[in-house]
């Protein structure tokens, strides 16, 4: 994995103004098309629970509300969920399995549901370890914070400058957002950085709002090490 990343010495490619916008300011000038959003998300695998016919397992919902299905960031978490379900409800648990899909496909399905009168929504299920890491970072500034609103994405700033740390991939400068804090730290090595965190759902919302902007085209989502291993296993099977 380290051979894939070459950490750029350019810290000022993206300044604090853009990041401040991303974290909750005026997003009206920043967005991607639906096709570009799918392109950004499709490299990240997520893991759903479905029966043999491919119908997802849904959570019970109140009358008139959309059904909710989980899209686990971690394959291990999805497998553990199925094993627990087999113990608590063997009839149901033995009829379902873990089904990998791309995050881009989940986004498309959610968009189709949004335009329908009723339907199925997928909710991303983060790993508890990364939620804990995210809360630890944020509680340093806000000790009263109790919950993290979604799936954590970790990114780095230069310790001495305020710009985002970038990577160079095939000659292009990209801004990486990691699903694991430790994975980010592993990649930067001895480089002094400040690690910050935002919710995946907030980044997707920023993708959607306003007009096209080059910053979001240069965002790179870096799957967890577990997910990268899963992707490598798929390549070996082909």
UniProtKB/TrEMBL annotation:
InterPro entries: Tic22-like. It comes from the Bacteria. GO terms for biological process: protein transport. Gene3D superfamilies: 3.40.1350.100. Signal peptide: none annotated. PANTHER family: PROTEIN TIC 22, CHLOROPLASTIC (PTHR33926). This is Tic22 family protein. It comes from Lusitaniella coriacea LEGE 07157.
């Amino acid at each position: 994995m380290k051979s894939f990343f070459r950490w750029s010495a350019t810290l000022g490619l993206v300044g604090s103004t853009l990041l401040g916008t991303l974290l909750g300011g005026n997003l009206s000038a920043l967005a991607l098309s639906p096709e570009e959003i799918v392109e950004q998300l499709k490299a990240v695998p997520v893991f759903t629970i479905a029966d043999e016919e491919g119908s997802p397992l849904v959570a019970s919902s109140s009358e008139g509300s959309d059904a909710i299905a989980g899209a686990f960031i971690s394959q291990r978490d999805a497998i553990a969920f199925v094993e627990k379900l087999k113990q608590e409800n063997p009839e149901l648990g033995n009829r379902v399995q873990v089904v990998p899909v791309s995050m881009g496909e989940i986004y498309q399905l959610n968009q189709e549901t949004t335009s329908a009168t009723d339907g199925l929504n997928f909710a991303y299920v983060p790993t508890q370890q990364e939620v804990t890491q995210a809360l630890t970072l944020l509680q340093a500034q806000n000790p009263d914070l109790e919950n993290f609103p979604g799936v954590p994405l970790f990114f780095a700033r230069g310790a001495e400058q305020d710009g985002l740390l970038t990577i160079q991939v095939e000659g292009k400068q990209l801004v990486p957002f990691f699903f694991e804090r430790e994975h980010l730290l592993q990649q930067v090595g001895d480089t002094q950085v400040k690690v910050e965190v935002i919710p995946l759902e907030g980044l997707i919302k920023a993708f959607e709002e306003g007009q096209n902007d080059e910053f979001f085209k240069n965002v790179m989502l870096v799957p967890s090490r577990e997910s990268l291993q899963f992707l490598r296993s798929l390549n070996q099977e082909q």
